[in-house]
Structure formats: C-alpha cells, structure tokens
Amino acid sequence: MRTDTGFLRNLGKRRGSQEDWRRERLDRGLKVRTEGLYAVSSWREILYLVGPRALLVLGLLLLPVLAPNLYWQRVLCVAGAYALLAITFDFLANYVGLVCVGGAFMTGVGGYVSGIFTYYLGFPWPVSILLGTVLGAVIVTLLWLPSLPLRGIYFAILTFMFPFLARGIILALDAFGGTLGLGPVYGADNIWVENYLVIAVMLVAVFALRRLVGEDVGILFLGVKDNDLAVLASGISITRVKAKGLFIGALGGCFAGAYIVHLYNFMGTSLFATDFSILPIAATVMGGSGTLVGPMLGALILTPLSELLRGFGQLRVVLYALVLIGFIMFKPEGIVNWLTRKYHQFEQWKKV
Amino acid sequence: MDVLIYGLVNSVVYMLMAAGFTLVYGVSRLPNFAHGALYVLTGFLTWTFVNSLNLNYFLSIVITLVIVSALGAGLYAFVLKRVRGMPVSEIIVSFAIALIILEGLRLQDIGGFKGFIGSSYSLPAFLQGTFSIAGVTLDYQRLLIIVVGVVVVVGMWVFTRHQKVGLAFRGMAQDERAAMMLGIDSDRMAVVALAVGSALAGVAAVTIYPLGQITAESGYHVLNAALAVCIVGGLGSWMGAILASFIFGFATTAAAFFGAPRYQDVILFALIILVLIVRPSGLFGRQKELEERV
Amino acid sequence: MRFRPSFDSNLNKVILIIAILSVAVVGVFLSGCGSSGGGSADDDALVIGITVGRASIYGQNSEYSAKLAADEINAAGGVDIGGKKVPIKLEIVDTRDEEPGVPTSDVLLTVEKLLLEKGVDAVTGGPSMSECSMALLDLYAKYKVPNIVASGTWTPAWNKKVAEDPEKYKYSFRLSGHVAYWAKDAAALLDQIKEEFGFDKLYVSSSDAAHTQAAAGAIKGLAAENGWTVVGEETHPMGSSDYSALMTDVAKSGAQVLFWWDCKPEVAIGIKQWYDMEVPAMLFGFLNPLDEPTGWDDLDGKVVSAIQFNGEGGSLPGSDFTPLTSKFFDGFVAKYDTEPRGCGNVPTYSAVYALKEAYEKVGSKDKEKIAEAIAEIEMVTAGGYLKFGEDHQAVYGTNPDETLVGQWLQWQDGKRVCIYPPAAATGQIQLPPWMQ
C-alpha cells in the first residue's frame, strides 16, 4: 500500500483562500522550443540544452585542479571509483531491471584479474586495467548467468552473497596472497594521470550509457525491465538481453576495481568489502535513480563527506544510514531528478 | 549419534533465528533486514539491565522483549509504511536501520556513550550443568533451546489457527486483497506482525546468547542465517522455514563432524545458489513459477 | 484559467540552485583546507600519529597505552629535543581496519591524510590487520616518515619484506611480535607441560584464517619434533557458532592438550562447551574471550585452567620482570579503572618511550636520523629489553633482561596468572579441575 504523499501535498487550500486549488506543472516555454530542429534556432536554446552538460564536464575537469592538496586529490580518485560503481548500479537497476547489491564482487573480480596481470605477468598497467575490466566483466556475467532469469529481490540477495562467498574461497584456498594480499602492484605514480583517468572514464560512462539507452539495444533493455513477458512474446531471448546489459554494467564495476588496485598498488580480499556494495546504493538514492549523472554526483558528495566525518568513528555509518532513510522516505526522486524537474518545468497553483 | 543431537540443536537455532523474519514476510511481504539488529539489541539491552541496573534476570528479559516489540512496531508505523510496495526500497531502508542500530552500538566516546566493544558481554545461562543422553554430553541450555523452539512452533501454530489476530495473519498471508475486503486492516496487521516478529527475534536472542557472547557483528550473521533459511524454504512459508533450518542444521553439523568443517560456509552458499537456480520459490514457496522466473 | 508564467525568474532560480550545488561539491573538497595547516599554537610539539582501529580491541588497547605514555612523558616535562623540552601531541586517527566492511584502500587513505595534513613527525600504533600494515610499508617508504607498528600485525611476512629492501623500508619498524616467536614460546610451554604432567598427545585446531592456520601449522611441526603425537586436527570457519563437533572429537581422540588458535569472539561458545563437556584435555592457545580482564565473570568461571597467550608481555597483574612493568600496569589501572588486555598495550607504550629516546638522542626532528636512531635503540621497557634486528623487528625471547618477552597466562581462581616465561612467571601451571 503506497500512500501517495505527492498527491496529498498538491491538494488543498492555498494561502487562506476558501477555494480548492491544485498544483500544476507545465513545461517551460524554453524547453518546448528546444525540441527538435528549433534547438539550434538561437543561442538561448542552445545554451539551455548545452549549459548543464557543459557545466558538468567543465566542473569535473576542473576538480583535480581545485583540490587543495594531494590528499584531496586522492580522495577524488577514490570518489571517482565509487562514482563508477554507482553509475553501474543505477544502469543495472533502472535500465536493465537487475538490482545488483553485490557491487563488491565486481570490484573484487576486476581488481584481482588486473592485479594478476600486473603482479604475476608484469604487464604495463594500462593493459592490465583494460584486461581486468573486460575479462572481469566476462567472468562476472558468466558467474551470474544462471540467476538472470530470476526476478526482483532474488537476484539482489544472490548478488549480495557473492562477495562473501568469493572472499571465503580465496581465504580458504589461500590463493592470490590469501589474507595478506599481494603487493606492490605498480600503477601510474602520477596523481594527475590517476585523477583524469577516472574522470575521463566517468564522463565516457555517463554519456555513452545515455546514448546506449536510446539505441535499439537500450530500448530492449528498458523493455525487459518494464515488461519482460511482452518482450518474450516477441521471440527475443530475455536471458541474452539481460546478459548483455549485465556485461556492459559490469565493465564499469570491474574498471573501478582494477583502478583501485593500481591506485593503491595493492590487492587483497578487502576488494570484496561491503562498502563497495552499499555506498553506490546510497549515492544512487541520494543523487537520483534513473539519471546516470545523479549517482555520480551522489558518490562525489558522499565520499568526501565520509572522509570529513572520519574523526567520528562509527557515527559516519549511522549518518550514512540516516541520510539514506531520509532520502528514500522524503525525497525518493533524488537530487538530480528534482533539479531536472525544476529546470524543465515550472509549477503554479490552479483553481479547481 | 552426536550428529543427530547436535544437528537437532543447530537446526532449532537456525529456526529460531529465522522465525521472526518468516512471520513478517509471510504476513506482510516485508523483508525486514533489521531483524538481525533487533536480535543484537535484545542481547545488549538485557545485558545492560542485568549488569548496569542490577535488575532480576527474568524481569530484564520481559522488559527488553516489550521494548523490542515496541521498536519493531514503531519501525513499521514510522518508516516502513512509507516505502511499502517497493521491495528494493524496503530492503534498503530496513538495512539502513539495521546499520544504525548495529553501528550505533559500537560508537565510542560520543557524548560519553561507551560502545559495546570486545568480548566481555554475555548473558548467563538459565540452567547450568550438563547431562548425558545416549552417550552424548549435552548441556541444559541447549536442551532449553530445543524446548523453546518447539514451544515457539506450537505456539505459532495455535496462534494462527485459534486466535483472532492469528487468523487474520493467515488471511493476510494467503490473500491480502481478500483479507482487506473482509475488513482486516493491512497496516494494523503489519504493525502487529512486526511487533510479534521482533519479539520472536528477541526470544531467539535471549535463548541463544547464553551459549556464547554478545557481539554487534553477530547481527549480520543472524540476518544471513534468516535469509538463507527463508530463501531455501520459501519466503513466507513456515513449513519451508522449518524444513530448511533442519537441512542447514544437519548439513553443517554433519560437515563439522565428518571432517570437513572448513566447507560449512561453502555448503551454505552452494545450497542457496542451487535452490535459487533450480527452484527459486524455495521448497515450499507459494509463488507461482511464472511470476518469479522468466 | 489564470496563470502567470514567470518562468524567467524561476529559471534563474534553478540555475542559481545548480550553481550552488556545484559550489557545494567543490566546497566539500575545499573545506579540507580547514582541517589542514591551521597553525597550531605549539608548533614545536612532537607530533606523533596514532593509527588505530578505534572500534576494535587491539586498536583500543593501543590508543589507551599511547595516551598513558604521552601523559606520563608530558607530566614529567616532555621530550628534550636539542636542549628544548617540548610536549608530545598525539594525533589519533581511526583507521577502521578491523571492521569487516572496510577495504585496505580506506586505511591507506586515512594514513595518507595523517601524513599530508597533520604534519606528523612519526607514527605508531596499528594497524593491527597484517594486510594493511603490509600495504602501508610502501606508503611510508614513499613519504619517508619514521613509523613503529606496535599493535597486532603478527605476520612474519612483514619483517621478511623489510629485509628484502632495507634501504627502501628503513623508516618502518615493528615493536609487536610475530607468530614465529609465539609458536616457539608455545612449543617451549608444551615442553614444560610434558615434563610436569607427562602428557604427549596433542590436538590442534584453528579457524580458517590464514594467520591462525599458520600458527597451527607451526605448532604442529614444532611439537612433533619435541616428542608430541598429534592425535587430531581440524580447521573450522571463522566465527563458527557451534563447537560440539570439535569438543567431541577431542574427547574421543585421547588428546591431553588441545591447542586452539582463533580470532573471533564466538569461540566463547566453544570454551563453555569445553568446560561443560569436561573434555579431558587442557585448553591452550589464543582465544579472544580469555584475554579480557573480566573473562572469568563473563564466562561464568568456565575458563578455569585455560592457558592463553597474552600477547606482548607486561600487562598481567603482578608482573615484575622489569622495573617499568608494574609502573605501566599501575598507571593503566589508575588512569582507566580497568586492567589492561594483552595485545598491543605494552608495545605501543614502549614505542612512545622509544620515540622519546630517539628524539632525545638525535636532538632534532630530522626524519632520516630518527630512523637510524630507532634502529640502534637499546633500552629497558615495560615489556623487557628492547632492541631491533637487522630486519627492523623487535627481538623477542624468554629473558626479559636481553629481549622483549611474550607472556602466557592461566586462569586460576578468578585471576590471570602468568605461567610463562619462567623469568616472568608468578604461578604454577594447574590442571583443569576434572583432570586432577
């Protein structure tokens, strides 16, 4: 039973008047004029469309420069990795219909695979990261393949358990360094390279995924998410579609893992930590699910915030959880969705 | 013989841990991920009453159970009610509450609150001493666990068949719409279900904790156990939960006794994954095949 | 239908909001400035970073002892650096390293923040997770800050790694011990038991964590060499909640001593079962609940005669093997109103004093000279005689006049009694009540 608080809020008396008013939302004239060919009819329209995106890109590119010292640049690197995981979670949950609560498994697989290439085989780090991303995504997809037909929370619970299982196996077999992990895993030693690498990948991920969703493949994903039986009735194998979606999503997660391993020159079972599963979810809820930008911004806000609260010990987690609950209960649409709505539409009260 | 007896004890332990979770899910389709947190909270509250306030042990237990039930009911009324119907949000919100409770218990030096860290918190056993049965030594507390488990199952059975509220539970579990048509208030039932479920978690905690020690981390372990049992048995089904807890209990005990204790965890996960792949609705699950599998 | 589309002002409002948000994101980064620099009033203070997982017992132990040492030194005037007395200022950071959900990269980030923002002169304390300390070796080598690991990190791999490249890792030291030392101690203690009671059948159990298994493996080898028969062994998952299989197996195997090395508090269940089932074997090893000063009460006295490795020596009541030991113990009890636990307490306490010694000897804060000075330290500490080996590992042995010592305790009559090493022992080894 869902209580539609939005409906209730929009109904009622307005400022002491006796009549009933309701809130109405209309698209802005500017927005309507920017649809179709008219988007290029004047600078105003172009700026309206390009503005937010340009702001985003410029802002991200400027962040490493604006960071006050090396420590905060490092934080930016880590935040970027979390942002990728958040984008992955959002993509999988809202565009493919797979709620993956086990992002840590992707980090772990991507991290270990790429780490193996650098540590044991001595490959240069860009190659390792690339191989780790692609091969890692293949492994994750293959391992989760049997559970793709499952719906709803079953998939979520299964993915939640996988990181623990993987960690347990590595510890029990004492493989790849076991509890102690392996290092050093040589990466780029230049903080600027590390910063801009992750920012570049983030931007590529966001824009590319957005584009992807508009393509045929993307429409299939959305169709499967909304009504898989209908898609099945059209003779398309749903498992294959989901597998494709999972693979694309896993690329992001595995890259995050590979990146972290080479950032900290170390790989260990802590790559399967639940932090990697939970923070992306919090970031998505806060940032706005369904918009790939929202989770990214959410992660970029939450990670430094977490650093600032480090002095408070466990209070940090308590605050996380409170923020999460607050957003889900009172503003489930998230920040970016809210902003988008405000940007595209205006509201007014109309007499009933 | 050892395997049989200890297997039985472990099965009942699993069952007690899962009881509250199953009830809540069965009645109102709410995955209450705060289950483990309520379990741990009961332990620590009882400990505080007994040790810091020097209350009588049984009185402490009763008071704590009341508090925890109220907390569970409040959890629904103030929080879960608003996200009902959206399964992922329910999970996230209840898990967030679990985090608040579990991590909050470990806060250090915030406003003078000293968290519960370390191995020094435990509840005394109700009965001390051991006895021998069929050549196997068993302590009274474990026997008590079995007794409590039986009482809980029988109690729940009687409750849902002969008590008005219990019958309403069954109605809700079978068909929510029809139950609502008959005048059963879904929200109120959910509140009661959560209260009872939390109380069950508390009962499990007070019975099982005297075996060892209270730690905040056990909250996650209990949640995993409850999830495992409910998934394999079928979310929402009591028979399934009981059967599944016996399977887990005997499987892990047998593994431990027959020389492969390292693989206990692996067995657990393997079972879950197997069930999810072959028969996602669990052994006694009520959901139709088509609904959860494409 | 009446409406006024004042969308221009609304749009401007929205743009303003977007701008504010972007500034907020940037601001969150920039606010890092506030916590760095800051210009402390006592710029000459000796700033020592304490890296501990504050929610773990090893972290807590380390933090308390560090504060105790710093307070004592400051009360006596401070550290004399080049003729000027400066106070010690502790920068305690929470590395959260013992927590299940926290990745190593987090710990590394914390330490990096400490090094970059707080301008520390040296670091001691944890982390107690070996994985984190191993990863930190490279970090400290990069930033060239003297550091002494003094709580946990009991893996022999640490000093092996340092020995591989002593020039690179010259700033890193370890004052806590490692499992090879403890295994040697355990073997010697087993010998003592063999002589006193004539036992020779051993059962070895551990959890499936790599370090506990390594300890079990080491003990198996050493005991076999000394004439013990290993009549059974098993490994169980960490945090297992039922040990009936283990206890039954031990009882059946005819073992007289059960060696059990574990790392989780759930073992309390097993300890109670050991007592309830009156398993005819002495309990001997490393189990967290036995380490708590309140262990007797916590487990209803079911710990009687259990022998526990108490970590680096110096935290048992009545210990007197150096003049500084009881000073530490009494100081701790006076300050915190509770007896100290075992691991990480005394090493951190000694580490702070060792740093004081190094700074006073060198007379400046030059990091390279300090590192060299620490390597050459020889001093009496609360845990024994401190000196570092070539691999920057503090040397442990059985004679507190020559090395540091690890202590083993046995629970007798509600108290922790030291029974090993002989130079520090305050009591005799006793059998479990049902075996007497």
Helix content of chain C: 40-55%
Low-confidence stretches of chain C: 1-8, 32-42
Number of strands of chain C: 17
* Strand portion of chain C: 15-25%
The biggest beta sheet of chain B is recorded as:
2 strands, antiparallel
What's the number of structural domains of chain B? 1
| Biggest β-sheet strands, sense, barrel of chain C | 8 strands, mixed
The helix content of chain B, as a percent range, equals 55-70%
- In what order do the strands lie side by side in the largest sheet of chain B? 1-2
**pLDDT < 50 runs, ≥5 residues of chain B:** 288-294
CATH structural architecture of the largest domain in chain C = 3-Layer(aba) Sandwich
Order of helices and strands of chain B: HHHHEEEEHHHHHHHH
Mean pLDDT of chain B: 82
Classify the secondary structure makeup of chain C into a structural class. Answer: alpha/beta
Q: Strand share of the residues of chain B?
A: under 5%
Largest interface by residue count?
Answer: A-C, 64 and 59 residues
Key words describing this protein structure:
heterotrimer, A: 352 residues, mainly alpha, ABC transporter involved in vitamin B12 uptake, BtuC, 3-stranded antiparallel beta sheet, 15 helices, disordered N terminus, C: 436 residues, alpha/beta, Rossmann fold, 8-stranded mixed beta sheet, 5-stranded parallel beta sheet, 17 strands, 20% strand, globular
